[in-house]
Design brief:
By secondary structure, this protein is an alpha+beta fold. The protein is built from 2 helices and 8 strands, in the order H-E-E-H-E-E-E-E-E-E. The termini are far apart.
């Protein structure tokens, strides 16, 4: 009987431990992201405005470091408002959605692109990755977006509105989105389905204003 009681207490303790871990993973990590977003909002608001060059492009010396605020992202259809950070590594995505950077100091492959990184408003593909679960799950409802929904980016050099054109699901190791199209667009990417990393959900949107 003593052995049975001990085993029962052990199983209960293990069950409670697993439950606490799940609670922290799904909700506790969101507290970390919420605090990080508050700090990013303050830092972003204090940034000096970027002056575009004579071609209307973001100057090459605008190079935020890993985890620095890059721009604000707002998607009214899914009630999303986040500060996007520079970089798509684990530490960066814990703070919020990450802007896919070019391969430069601070960013190594495969978490960067050999192509020139694009910024909102430019004639190219702005790539943003984000968590679908845990750490605030900013892209939890990304699958709900439909053609015509607005994606609004606010930068220190202006505000740019994109309109969703299509969605697709690709293998988790697909590099297709890292290829520049020459079209002024933004691409949002996250895990698919929810609570799994078996695939990637991609949402494409083109600049409309």
């Amino acid at each position: 009987m003593r052995y049975v009681r001990f085993l029962g207490k052990l199983l209960i303790s293990l069950g409670v431990g697993v439950l606490l871990f799940v609670v922290w993973t799904l909700w506790g990590t969101g507290l970390y992201t919420a605090r990080a977003q508050d700090e990013l909002e303050v830092t972003f608001a204090d940034q000096p405005p970027v002056v575009l060059d004579e071609k209307g492009q973001v100057p090459e010396n605008f190079t935020p470091g890993p985890g620095d605020p890059a721009f604000r992202l707002r998607i009214p259809a899914i009630d999303l408002r986040q500060v996007v950070v520079e970089g798509v590594g684990t530490d960066e995505l814990h703070k919020g959605p990450g802007h896919y950077p070019s391969c430069r100091p601070g960013f190594a492959r495969p978490l960067c692109t050999e192509f020139e990184e694009m910024w909102p408003g430019e004639d190219g593909r702005v790539i943003v990755s984000g968590h679908r679960t845990t750490y605030g799950a900013p892209f939890f409802h990304l699958d709900r977006l439909q053609a015509g929904d607005k994606i609004i980016t606010t930068t220190t050099w202006g505000e740019y509105t994109y309109e969703v054109t299509r969605k697709e699901i690709v293998p988790p190791d697909s590099l297709a989105i890292a290829i520049q199209s020459g079209t002024p667009e933004i691409v949002l990417t996250t895990c698919n389905p929810k609570f799994s990393a078996a695939e990637r959900l991609i949402v494409y949107a083109e600049l409309v204003g």
